[in-house]
Amino acid sequence: MVVRTVVVCLGDSITAGSPLWDPDPILRAQIGAAADERSQWEWWAGKRAPRLRFRNHGVDGERTDQIAARLAGAVRGADVLVVEGGINDVVQRRPVADAARNLAGMVEDGRRLGLAVALADVLPWNNGDDRAAADILELNARIHALADELGLPLLPFHDTLVDAQRPHRMRDELTDDGDHPSVEGHRLLGERVAPILQAATNT
Questions:
Q1: CA-CA distances (angstroms) from residue 108 to 56, 84, 97?
Q2: So where are the chain's domains?
Q3: Per-residue pLDDT tens for 60-99?
Q4: Which end of the chain, N or C, is less packed with Cβ atoms under 10 Å?
Q5: 148: Cβ–Cβ under 8 A, 6 or more apart, which residues?
Q6: How far apart are CA 203 and CA 201, in angstroms?
Q7: Superfamily of 5-201 according to CATH
């Protein structure tokens, strides 16, 4: 019998798989025939690391404070917590310091519950303006500093999909709508982070 490590992925639409997927079957039915389960980085990470069992707890549109409110219910039975979020704080012009504090709180809560915790940074936002790009840069600096301070695995979402020639954007072929990764973008994310999570869990 294969014993799998349960990885709970808590976040916003990037975790959920928008716009082509949602873990909520009611919302997925609204997507209809276009729904594609490959529009989740977790799906691809699971293919690369089959001993990890991923649970998708992403909710489209949520800020970090809203994501944090779901943590206790999401992590029951989990071994690992992946914390992802922050773009909706940026979209809604919330203070970057508050978003960083909420992410740090989720990390603290997960560790207090005895979970291994990994932290994802924020993707570029192709539909954003210069203010949003600056906020993402600042928030990612805070996320990276937190990961360094606590020795957390950092999931490099931003650098995996960034356009090197236009560093405030995802590469055009890796996003469907300028807000979210395409299926190919999710594939690259999942395959990039799978070995990081495997190493963090020794599986």
A1: 20, 14, 16
A2: 5-201
A3: 999 999 999 999 999 999 999 999 999 999 999 999 999 9
A4: N
A5: none
A6: 5
A7: SGNH hydrolase (3.40.50.1110)
